[in-house]
Write a structure and sequence with these properties.
about 200 residues; 9 helices; alpha/beta; 5 strands; five-stranded mixed β-sheet; globular; single chain
């Protein structure tokens, strides 16, 4: 059996297990999508959004890219955001980074990585903005982990400045943005306490 055939086999076993647990699950899932959460996370395969928060398919709308960026010229992310806010009417947007992020490390390791360097430039800018704080952290792992946190804070701020979010807040839509970080080494999510809504602002 090839690796791809194994994936099909895994899928059949998973679908059968779900149907045994809830015979109407797929029927209900096909009828509608009404998640209350939009998750903007990293593409890292070790961070499966719905699993680490214990939600089923259909309960969380997910967008992932390298180093969980919200960039104002990224039409992919902005399209997901618009659909989530204006059509799905999500109530919570979670930006979740993770410790040990390879994208964050690549942004500041001083090496050339090709096309991705343009994408990671935004993280390098965040590192420069907080250079004094980061330089004071002598342990390299802790310094990079702190940059992972600062990157999440920057993305929460970027989100709060998008036209879709401003429009939703102006209309009184119930919508809050959260900044979290996930520890791959222990499986625990930490709240960075940068929650923001139309009545408050994210720290700079």
């Amino acid at each position: 059996m090839s690796a791809l055939e194994q994936l099909f086999e895994n899928n059949r076993a998973w679908a059968e297990r779900i149907k045994q647990e809830d015979p109407e699950f797929f029927t209900k899932l096909a009828a509608q999508q009404t998640p209350e959460y939009l998750w903007i996370g990293c593409s890292d395969s070790r961070v499966p959004a719905n699993q680490i928060v214990g939600l089923l398919p259909g309960e969380i709308f997910v967008h992932r890219n390298i180093a969980n960026q919200v960039i104002h010229t990224d039409l992919n992310c902005l399209s997901v955001l618009q659909y989530a806010v204006e059509v799905l009417k999500v109530k919570h947007i979670i930006v979740s980074g993770h410790y040990g992020c390879g994208g964050v490390h690549a942004a500041v390791d001083g090496k050339e990585h090709g096309l991705i360097d343009n994408w990671l430039r935004h993280i390098a800018d965040t590192a420069e903005k907080h250079e004094k704080e980061l330089d004071a952290i002598t342990d390299e792992k802790q310094r990079l982990n702190r940059l992972c946190e600062l990157n999440v804070v920057a993305q929460v701020k970027n989100l709060s400045n998008t036209p879709m979010i401003k429009k939703a807040w102006a209309a009184g839509q119930d919508l809050t943005i959260h900044g979290w970080i996930y520890g791959i080494e222990d499986g625990v999510i930490r709240d960075l306490h940068v929650c923001t809504a139309n009545y408050c602002r994210v720290p700079s």
